[in-house]
Design brief:
Layout lengths: L10 E3 L16 E3 L11 E2 L5 E4 L2 E5 L19 E5 H5 L6 E5 L13 E3 L2 E7 L14 E7 L4 E3 L4 E3 L5 E7 L2 E11 L8 E8 L4 E6 L4 E3 L9 E10 L6 E12 L36 E5 L31 E8 L2 E7 L8 E6 L27 E5 L5 E6 L5 E8 L4 E3 L11 E5 L6 E7 L2 E6 L5 E7 L4 H7 L8 H4 L4 E8 L7 E3 L2 E5 L11 E5 L5 H21 L14 H9 L4 H14 L10 H11 L13 E4 L2 E4 L7 E3 L5 H15 L18 H34 L3 H4 L20
């Protein structure tokens, strides 16, 4: 890092930076709306995802919208923030929703969505500001808030990010809401090279605090997104050269959102740091800002070249505390459940070989707390699909590892004085504390969530996240035995056997599915919804894995009947049951029946007299049977109904299993309906354009016609020339008296009064 900065205090207003900020009570004011009725008070859970539970309501982002979509206040439907009452969810009144914020909630940090504190909801939204040429600056992300009853929405942003990719969290410390964010490639001065900084913005006072300058990486709490504590790593630099270079180690720090004091202010100068420059006149001032507490110090006895390393003002403790020969570089893997999990390496061994943990409340001994290698949680700290730290069987802490093979394993550990330590370091499968929950599958496994005793995960899917689950609290024998059993085994055993939930598929380029109470909410990429990505809801109820298997069998049986039963050409010949199968699929996805009747008549009327019906009476008879299953037709096993949006829905309809939550825009409703027609209905025969008599000729006929016309044209031209010559010659031979013309006297007879009417 070059020497380019002037001294600056740790706390400052964000208006100083390229990132602008205003206080909530600033001159921008609010957009106003009529209040929504209903009691929105109560506890908050699942804060920070795309769906948040608050009191009697669930607030959620209504589908995946682009930042380039029109975001004028009051316009957006898709991507806006809605709420649904829990009572309506329970009654499956999925369309009974209310729009709370009529603006697009957006970010590409899919670990942070909407946050609720007090009576306000906090979120990011594409900027609607325009540049001098009138172009909307929707690549900027405005951080705003609105009241939960919809009455107030900030016009001006707390902070405006120059990119939607900024990582952030809205957190609460005391009674104050802070916006913590990582400003990547931030330039505090025009001439500097962009660096990564950690900020905390006080939404009550409008003060933006620079918590740490030029950080390497920042890690938020992955389990509790409202946690105001973060961990971050920083390099230690050598300032004695012409340009600052990092030593071969780094340090791990932690800080909370309400910190305001730079721990190094007034301590860094030419006397304390070799080569430090604080001469503001030459414009090459060194800078270091850090409001955090040092957790681990990676300084070793010597660097990888054998040079002895001395303590600097950035180090703490005594030189004789350093017991490791080589310096460490820390990489945080996860922060959750009150512990930070990290790997470390040296210059000579850059592979992150060991995974360690350290608890929040551990005594701060940055050098002495470097554990020995044999105190690691895992001897392989690189899990392809990441880690998920849980309480496993009998409440014992464990780490779940998703593997590149598609399998998922669990490893138990016990407490030690600083963090957690495994009972056994896993070298092979089959130990008492390390065993696979799920055997290897095709594709990489991705852990979605842990809810109660169930682990939800996805395996590579062409559309998005598939949703699978398994009870992760079993013993090694439970999984071994369950996978030997068939589908008729006891539900208890089947719970330890993985199951896929229907054909649910969630967008893998947006937030992961939300699991709220007994509902799965997901941005759907299921059949016919891939172009729209609205939120759909699946009611898990109290189903165990055995129940889900039965539901899967029932659901898959619909297509099986359509394909196999109605695909039997002997029983259902095409002559009498034309286009029946796709018509039934059209019905499954709630196609417009009245439209199909009219459309069928139009197609049938246009057919040749001796042609088969496009949609016959027999086809519509089976269509009617599909809509109303009875004990006497093919759908006898699908007579069960559920009330969905106030209507009785039979078990052979998609909405019986999962449905759109909320509302779709008018344009998307129309497009969805047209998409069903294109996918499942017979297309109209294209009318042949009228052909002129010339286009109806063969190629040979066209050639002879053109040659003939050319000859006729040539004869006409020759004839015209001959006629002209003939007439000229004829005129020259006419007698003089025949060529003489009438002579008109044009002299003025002045004796005649032209104005005398009598004369």
């Amino acid at each position: 890092m070059g020497k380019r900065f002037t001294k600056i205090i740790c706390a400052m207003t964000a208006s100083t930076f390229i990132i602008g900020a205003v206080a909530a009570t600033g001159c921008g004011g609010y957009y106003s709306a009529s209040p929504l009725t209903g009691d929105y008070k109560g506890e908050v859970s699942s804060n920070g995802g795309f769906a948040v539970e608050k009191g009697n309501y669930i607030y959620y982002i209504n589908g995946v919208e682009e930042s380039t979509a029109l975001n004028d206040y009051g316009t957006p439907v898709k991507g806006a923030i809605y709420r649904v009452a829990k009572d309506d969810l329970e009654k499956r009144n999925y369309s009974s929703v209310q729009r709370v914020v009529p603006g697009i909630a957006y970010s590409t940090d899919y670990n942070a969505g909407i946050f609720i504190y007090g009576d306000r909801i906090y979120y990011g939204t594409p900027s609607t500001a325009k540049n001098s040429e009138g172009v909307v600056q929707n690549s900027y992300l405005d951080m705003k808030s609105s009241k939960l009853d919809g009455t107030e929405t900030l016009k001006e942003a707390y902070v405006s990010f120059p990119s939607a990719a900024y990582e952030y969290r809205f957190v609460e410390e005391g009674d104050t809401v802070y916006l913590m964010y990582i400003a990547t490639e931030e330039k505090l001065y025009d001439e500097e090279t962009g660096v990564t900084n950690l900020h905390s913005y006080n939404t009550a006072t409008g003060v933006d605090t620079l918590l740490a300058y030029n950080v390497s990486a920042v890690t938020f709490d992955s389990a509790d997104k409202t946690n105001s504590r973060v961990y971050y790593t920083m390099n230690v630099y050598d300032y004695s050269g012409t340009s600052n270079t990092a030593y071969g180690y780094n340090q791990l720090y932690t800080v909370k959102a309400d910190a305001t004091v730079d721990k190094f202010a007034g301590k860094l100068n030419a006397d304390t740091v070799k080569g430090w420059n604080d001469n503001e006149d030459d414009g090459t001032v060194d800078r270091y800002v850090n409001c955090g507490d040092l957790v681990l110090d990676g300084i070793g006895y010597s660097d990888y070249l054998g040079n002895t390393l001395s303590l600097t003002p950035f180090n703490t403790g005594e030189r004789n505390e350093v017991t490791n020969d080589l310096s460490y570089t820390y990489t945080v893997q996860q922060y959750s459940n009150g512990s930070v999990y990290y790997t470390r390496s040296t210059k000579l061994d850059s592979v992150n070989k060991y995974l360690f943990s350290l608890k929040d409340d551990a005594e701060l001994k940055p050098i002495a707390n470097n554990l020995a290698d044999d105190e690691a949680i895992l001897n392989d700290g690189t899990a392809a699909g990441g880690y998920y730290f849980v309480n496993g069987k009998d409440g014992k802490p464990a780490v779940i590892c998703a593997e590149s093979s598609g399998g998922i394993s669990i490893n138990y550990f016990v407490d030690n004085k600083l963090g957690d330590k495994l009972l056994d370091v896993p070298s092979t499968e089959g130990t008492n504390t390390y065993y696979p929950i799920i055997k290897a599958k095709v594709g990489t496994a991705t852990i979605l969530s842990v809810e109660g005793d169930y682990l939800y995960y996805s395996v590579s899917d062409s559309n998005g996240y598939s949703i699978n689950r398994v009870n992760y609290t079993g013993s090694q024998d439970d999984y071994w035995y369950a996978n030997l059993q068939d589908e008729s085994a006891d539900d208890f055993i089947q719970d330890y056997k993985t199951v896929k939930v229907l054909d649910l598929s969630a967008s893998s380029s947006w937030y992961k599915p939300e699991f709220i109470q007994n509902y799965i909410l997901f941005a759907s990429t299921t059949s016919n919804m891939t172009n729209y990505n609205y939120i759909m809801v699946f009611d898990l109820g109290d189903m165990n894995n055995g129940d889900i298997r039965k539901l899967n069998e029932q659901y898959e049986g619909i297509e099986k009947i359509i394909s196999e039963t109605f695909g039997d050409a002997d029983k259902y010949p095409a002559k009498n049951y034309a286009n029946l199968q796709n018509a039934l699929r059209y019905a499954f996805y709630n196609g417009d029946y009245d439209y199909l009747k009219e459309y069928a008549k139009e197609l049938n009327d246009a057919r040749d007299d001796d042609a088969d019906y496009i949609y016959s009476e027999q086809t519509f008879a089976e269509y009617d049977n599909f809509l109303k299953p009875t004990a006497d037709n093919a759908w006898k096993d699908y007579r069960d109904t559920r009330k969905v949006n106030g209507n009785d829905v039979y078990a052979n309809n998609r909405d019986y299993y999962y449905s759109v939550l909320g509302e779709m825009s008018e344009a998307d409703i129309k497009a969805y309906a047209e998409g069903l027609k294109v996918s499942y209905l017979v297309a109209k025969a294209e009318e042949e354009p009228e052909v002129s008599w010339f286009e109806g000729l063969s190629t040979v006929e066209k050639v002879f016609f053109i040659i003939g016309m050319c000859l006729i044209g040539a004869l006409v031209i020759v004839g015209c020339v001959w006629l002209s010559v003939f007439l000229v010659k004829r005129k020259k031979h006419q007698p003089e008296e025949r060529r003489r013309r009438i002579k008109v006297d044009t002299t003025d007879d002045k004796s005649v009064d032209v104005y005398d009417y009598n004369e």
